[in-house]
Automatic annotation (TrEMBL):
It catalyses: UDP-N-acetyl-alpha-D-mannosamine + N-acetyl-alpha-D-glucosaminyl-di-trans,octa-cis-undecaprenyl diphosphate = N-acetyl-beta-D-mannosaminyl-(1->4)-N-acetyl-alpha-D-glucosaminyl di-trans,octa-cis-undecaprenyl diphosphate + UDP + H(+). The gene is tagA. This is N-acetylglucosaminyldiphosphoundecaprenol N-acetyl-beta-D-mannosaminyltransferase. Belongs to the glycosyltransferase 26 family. TagA/TarA subfamily. Pathway: Cell wall biogenesis; teichoic acid biosynthesis. It is an enzyme of class 2 (transferase). Catalyzes the conversion of GlcNAc-PP-undecaprenol into ManNAc-GlcNAc-PP-undecaprenol, the first committed lipid intermediate in the de novo synthesis of teichoic acid. It comes from Lysinibacillus alkalisoli. InterPro entries: TagA_TarA, WecG_TagA_CpsF. One of its GO terms (biological process) is cell wall organization. GO terms for molecular function: N-acetylglucosaminyldiphosphoundecaprenol N-acetyl-beta-D-mannosaminyltransferase activity. PANTHER family: PTHR34136, UDP-N-ACETYL-D-MANNOSAMINURONIC ACID TRANSFERASE. Pfam families: Glyco_tran_WecG.
């Protein structure tokens, strides 16, 4: 898989279709793999947090989730040309899994949310096999792992927020049945209808961050990571 470094964080350069081929080839090879979403906020945090930096770089697949990563790649004349968002990666995996007969498990979220997300996926992708759900409030780790393993899914989506979800996956995946693991944050809430995504216009232009900022002005501090991030990219480029 071709990757490039953005401020010392690895990022895949493939588009959705190329990633689908790679992911399902990994399932055929039973090659356990973690999908992580990379955005400017995470990259800036990773500069100060070595454990987060290791977590991101050790993942098998790092998707460019955020228009800032695309801009950074352009600034350094890289090969990342299209955004791959976490929620859309999940949906594409579900769509492809339905076609190929691969099984899926949903873990995380408040009680009832994963079940609603399952129902929505079954509406979106007829024939999809969502073979189990588990809310994120169960404390018995052995029970959670047993439920996942008994369902025998190929793909496990974990909704706990980052990096908690990725740390949970790394801690348990050697004892779990699934091959592909993705931390999906609030995606179950989106599918369940509890949280609305930005309108299509914002999704297509990569400006979902602006929509969320207008809806939640308190996010301004988080969004300041973007100009700081791009400035760091320019500084690094000028050093070369």
């Amino acid at each position: 898989m071709k990757k490039e470094r953005v401020l010392d964080i690895l990022v895949n350069t493939q588009n959705y279709d190329e990633l689908m081929e790679d992911v399902f080839a990994r399932i055929e090879r039973n090659e356990k793999s973690l999908v992580v979403a990379i955005n400017p906020e995470k990259i800036m945090k990773a500069k100060q947090d070595p454990s987060l930096r290791r977590l991101l770089n050790d993942a098998e697949i790092q998707i460019p989730d955020g228009i800032g990563v695309i801009l950074a790649s352009k600034l350094q004349q890289g090969d990342i040309t299209s955004r791959v968002t976490g929620v859309d990666m999940m949906l594409r995996l579900c769509e492809e899994a339905a076609k190929r007969g691969e099984r899926i498990f949903l873990y995380g979220g408040k009680p009832g949310v994963a079940e609603k997300a399952k129902a929505k996926l079954e509406t979106l992708y007829p024939g999809i096999q969502v073979v189990g759900t588990q809310d994120g409030y169960e404390k018995d780790e052995a029970l959670i792992c047993t439920r996942i393993n008994e369902a025998k899914p190929a793909i496990l989506f974990v909704a706990m927020g980052s990096p908690k979800q990725e740390n949970w996956i790394n801690e348990h995946r050697d004892q779990l049945h699934p091959t592909i693991y993705q931390g999906v944050g609030g995606s179950f809430d989106v599918l369940a209808g509890n949280v609305k995504r930005a309108p299509q216009m914002f999704q297509k232009t990569g400006t979902e961050w602006l929509y969320r900022l207008v809806k939640e002005p308190s996010r301004i501090k988080r969004q300041m990571a973007l100009p700081q991030f791009l400035l760091e990219v320019v500084k690094q480029k000028n050093k070369k």
